[in-house]
Every structure is written in C-alpha cells, then in structure tokens.
Amino acid sequence: MVARQWRPDVTAPDLIRPALMVIDLANDFLAAWEPARRARLIAATNELVGIFRAAGRPVIWVRQEFRHDLGDAFLEMRDRGVRLTIAGTDGAKLDAQLQVLAHDITIVKKRYSPFFGTDLDQVLAAREIGSLVIAGINTHACVRMAAIDAYQRDMRVILSAEATGSYDEDHARVSLRYMDGKIARVLDTDAIRAAIA
Predict the structure, then answer these.
(1) Which CATH architecture has domain 18-196?
(2) d(Cα 116, Cα 104) in Å, to the nearest integer?
(3) Which domain of life does the UniProt lineage start with (predicted)?
C-alpha cells in the first residue's frame, strides 16, 4: 500500500467573526532563519494582515517575553538557562518589517499556548470572535498549541500554509498533517482571502 501524500485542502469552511492571530515572530526566534526564508514568512504574514484589515477584522499579535532572571520562564528554559525573548531586549520585539498598528491587540505569553495565563479568552469574547486564522512560528510547538486550545473552545481554526513556519520542518509537516481536517484546516492565502471576503 502506498501512503497518500498529504496536501493542504483548498476549500474554506464558513468563518464566523474571524480574527487573525500571529504568533511569535520575534527577533530572537527569527535570528537563525535564512534571510530569504525569513523575508518570505514576513511578506506572507503582512499579506494576511492586509486581508484582515481590508475586511475590518481584528489582528492579534502574540509574543513571548520573560524576566531577566527567568523566574517566569518555562521549565526547559530555566533548566538549561535559555535566554530568549527577555523583556526590554530587541530580541523580544516583533520583526520591524511586520505591519503592526497601535490599535492592534497584543498578547504577551509565558508558555506555548497564548491562552495559558493571559487574557486572550476575554479579548476574544469581548470582540465576539468565533474563528481564528493562525500564522507564525513554530508550527509544531506554539502554533499547534494555539490551534488545539482554540479548537477546544469550539472555534473554527485555519492555519496559513504560507505564513506559518518552523525551524523543524519534519515536525512541522507531521503537525500540519495531524491537525488538518481535525483540529484546523490548512489553507493557502487565496483560500483565506475568499473565506474572509
């Protein structure tokens, strides 16, 4: 038996009061990315941002940030002394090429999921958000956790095929294959544009 090659679906489900959520496009995470690949991810993300702004829909920027002493960091960071996205450093800032506006929503998280220990639930409820389009990094970690936690809240979830990425492409492919058609739908930008319109 030959295993079927996984490909993203091209049809979009009905999206109810959607918002765009962009996860962890911070300088520290993107520093190791090859410049052309980083530029493609940022351009794809900005294209999605433009689609949502044109439709009058919210854009939510999620970023990770920790204290200098790592007292609020997760166990692996504390155990290994990993110092990424430290408050007050350029590494904790979003990439300067992203089209962030002052009235956008920003969520600062301390764990993989943007729902854990934040006010994201209240933010979504106040704006009556019923579905999320998710972009950002890393597909197999924070993006996956965001999608699963949104799905557990009975939200429709779309993952952007072009505007998500990972330093671990193998795990990213497995994660997308697992989520697509179950937890979320993986769609390209044209399908997302059609769904938002």
Answers:
(1) 3-Layer(aba) Sandwich (3.40)
(2) 20
(3) Bacteria
